[in-house]
Amino acid sequence: MKRNYEALFGAFYERYFDFKSQGISNAEALVCTSEAYFGVQKRGEMEKAVVVIAEGRIYLTHSKIFINSKERIVNLLKDLDLEKLQLETTSDEYQDILERRDMVLDGIESIPVDHSPFARWYYNEMEKEVKNYFIEIFVNTNDASEIIEKIEERFERECRSTWSENIVVKTTLAELLIRHSIKPENEFLSLKIELERFDMNEIGQLLTESEKFDLSIRIKEVLSKI
User: Mean pLDDT per 10-residue run, the chain (226 residues)?
Assistant: First the structure.
């Protein structure tokens, strides 16, 4: 049992990082991992406990957690059948699971709640991802058209996915071009038109009010410099 117990934790984390390596957000990678292990939870109380705890522990490293996911994890961990769990594990494993369960239940309360059901890059994460990729490109070229083309190609999926990801990508890209004195003509005009037409009301619950405020300031600063 011990090998299966430890291997299941390891396999769950490995699958999560496999999804992450595909360039998707933390939130989406964890949703995909959870879905992949949905059937495993039905094999026994130990499997259920390990999968839910593993998911919860990864959420502890995230900047937000979808409110329904939080409620599901908390309810599943609180409703574990401890008698069954004792029968399916050694005494050491049982105690370890309880300690990990309690750590998740304690830590999950301090994670900011996301009210949007869309698994996506969150505000600061999206900005950071664009900046990191920009640096990778800028090391090899300062050609405006090439940089913009590569950024748009890398984040095409995100820009089509949600309004928040799209506008954060475009705003961050414009900021970086300005900061590095890269001034494309037609491409900048396209970015300017998109930023000018952007309606913050379209964001809904994809961003918090403080994130919306910060984004609006960033957009105004960009438009004043283009």
Answer: 77 97 96 94 92 98 97 97 94 94 97 96 97 95 89 96 96 94 77 92 94 97 90
Say if residues 96 and 54 touch (Cβ distance below 8 Å).
Answer: no
Report the alpha-carbon angle 180-185-187, nearest 5.
85
Backbone φ and ψ for 69, nearest 5 degrees, come out as -65, -40
Residue 135 pLDDT: 95
Answer whether 174's CB lies under 8 Å from 195's CB: yes
3-state secondary structure of 65: strand
What is d(CA 57, CA 40) in angstroms, rounded to the nearest whole number?
18
5 within 8 A of 43, measured Cβ to Cβ: no
**Please, is 39 exposed, middle or buried when counting C-beta atoms within 10 Å of its C-beta (0-12, 13-18, 19+)?**
exposed
Q: How far apart are CA 4 and CA 43, in angstroms?
A: 12
Name the pTM for this structure: 0.89
Quick one: CA dihedral 57, 165, 113, 216, positive or negative?
Answer: positive
Q: Which two tokens stand for residue 223?
A: 């438009």
Residue 54 φ then ψ, to 5°:
-60, -45
